[in-house]
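Standup notes
- DV: blocked on the single-chain target, sequence here:
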Amino acid sequence: MAEQRRDQRGGRDGRTGAQGVSEPRRRDARAEEADAWLELVATARRTVSDGLVVGTSGNVSVRVGDTVLVTPSGVPYDRLGPHDVTGVDLAGRRVLGTRVPTSELPMHLAVYAGTDAAAVVHTHAVHATAVSTLVPELPAIHYMSAALGGAVRVAPYATYGTDELAENMLRALADRSGCLLQNHGTITYGATLTQAYDRTAQLEWMCRLWLTASAVPGLTPSLLSPDQVAEAGEKLRGYGQTEG
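- DV (later): unblocked, structure below
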């Protein structure tokens, strides 16, 4: 609703931005964008099926050239189809579709402006959100911390959809590919939607691991040192199959 009111203030059809600058004329999705949209929808649905979000909470985006495809606001992911494609330019002006983009668009655009990300996944995962209320960073409980650049920081709380939240998030993401959002959830990015999603899933798993270990009475979890995390990071860079 808040996004709809902003559109109405900018112009009856949403074609005028907050600064009174006309938005680009909306166009049909190109073939590459249409394919990316289908992958985005599949990823968004996976966040629900894997229990990382409930209802329409959380959001997903992918960058195709200078266009950012993003889940629309308030639409259940299982109802999204090819006709619901929603895209903005790097300034946040709608160029594809008629749906209102997610209210968390400022966060997504900030990631693309401040990193080399090609995809972003934001969730309200239970264990990760719980950890965000307890500590300023997720302790290095497992070597997979290295996959996100090290111990995962918690961005200070700010109201969702605000520039303040986007700024807090960017500071927490310095030299990292994911962070926790205090009393809110997670955000991760990657070179592909698959990588961004996998980082989100790993972050939620590590948060669950730390909470589980911390809950044992009278015992404190052992943690990895920065050097141990860095060594794991070097090994992870060469992990996987190589083409022969």
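- Follow-up: The chain has seven helices and nine strands.
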